[in-house]
Design a protein that fits this description.
- The chain is mainly β.
- 10% of the residues lie in helices and 44% in strands.
- It has five helices and 36 strands.
- The strands form eight sheets. Strands 12-9-15-20-17-18 form a six-stranded mixed beta sheet, with no helix packed on it. Strands 13, 14, 16, 19, 21 and 22 form a six-stranded mixed beta sheet that branches. A six-stranded mixed beta sheet has the order 26-23-29-34-31-32, with no helix packed on it.
- The longest helix has 24 residues.
- It is globular and about 70 Å long.
- It starts with a helix and ends with a strand.
- It binds CU-O-CU linkage and copper (II) ion (CU).
- The site of CU-O-CU linkage (C2O) has 10 residues, from strand 5 and strand 35.
Amino acid sequence: MRLRRRSFIAGAAAAALAPAQRGQAATFGTLRAGVHRVQLAPDPLPMTDVWAYEGRIPGPEIRVPQGKRVTQTLVNALPQPTTVHWHGIRIDNVMDGVPDLTQPAVAPGQSWDYDFAVPDAGTYWYHTHNRTVEQMARGLSGPLIVTEAQPPDVDRDMTLHLSDWRMVDPAQIRTDFDNRMDQSHAGRLGNYLTINGQQELITEVKHNDRLRLRLINAATDKVITLAVQGLEGWVVALDGMPLAAPKPLEPSDLTLAPAQRVDLIVDVTATQGQDAYLIEKLGESGYLLGQFPVRAGATPRRDAPEPLPPNPAQATLADLDAPSAPLIMDGGAMRGLRRAFYKGDLLDGRALAQQGQFWALNGTAGLPEAPLAEVSLGDTLRLPLQNNTAFPHAIHLHGHHFREVLADGSLGPWRDTILVQPATAREVIFVADNPGDWLLHCHMVSHHASGMGTWLRVNA
Ligand code: C2O
Ligand code: CU
């Protein structure tokens, strides 16, 4: 009796489930990369030709609850092959979007399904990973927000995506993407910064409102320094990962290397009739990025926020006695590469320059045949980062977060990208808890294009 009934239910359930499952497969969102014209420059100026996801600058915000899946079909309507990289996510290696390492680049007219779980909450982003300087400089990036089951108590949650554009009259993107002067110096630096695709964001707030600001540096190469006025609060997360304790916001906290993110929780301390501001700091002066006209508010000032719940990624324990794989950065203007391996041959500086290679990691320009290190799943690895060049570099590891080993032996916050200043040594440590081949590169993408990339293998 019971058996029959169960089989009957199974049959009915199967019938009911079949269309539902098909429906689920159909919930793949479309992320169409195409050629568009948008109003990027302020109004009397003409529209700008861009490459954009879904015709939008930045690309649409993908918001997904922690532990769920992102399912997006990339449709390539560009005149070049492309891929999508999901920056900062502890992703399945096959979904990482790195051409020739984890997938072939998707040809024009073709599509590619991305389907992966997001184990950690926080502020992430997605961007092209093919001909990245050109494709990102033309507009191909967007925010990826993984929400906590219990989000912090705030009045607004705002994503602020910063892009750096090199414009020429009349409001068109300059197409010197392989400019060797940029590559051998600080990279492609723009002359026009946008916040969520606009020159300036204007949003009304109330006195004592509590805002969560998710700042993303989506510039190709620019280190962005920010300041706030009329807003006071805390840094609560870096590169998606919560700090163990919210850290009072100081101006020096607000330097974002390319690809870095910071989550702030700030209270509007400016009073009714005043404005609060988000500013790009340039020496003693600054450019207005965000203007928040303040209305009267009823809420009294609140206590410091609770820390955000730690992510599963932060449960791993690094073994400080682990082996090291040093990463030595050489080259660039003023230090010049004397020689380096490139595609298996030892070339002198002039021959490297002819190949558009200006930087080397451990004596090799471009992606080496062999990984920087090969480790087993669960192993800890230390990465001493030695910058022998005259420029800062933003070193990013795919598929993992690391911590800095500080001078006193303690460990810094979790990050996926670290800014290493010229003639400086830093060291990071991480647990290789995600199997696959993972890129390790400078996220000043002009530097990556001209030599600064290597990879690690994590064996399952
Ligand atoms: Cu933002 Cu290789 O990545
Ligand atoms: Cu660099």
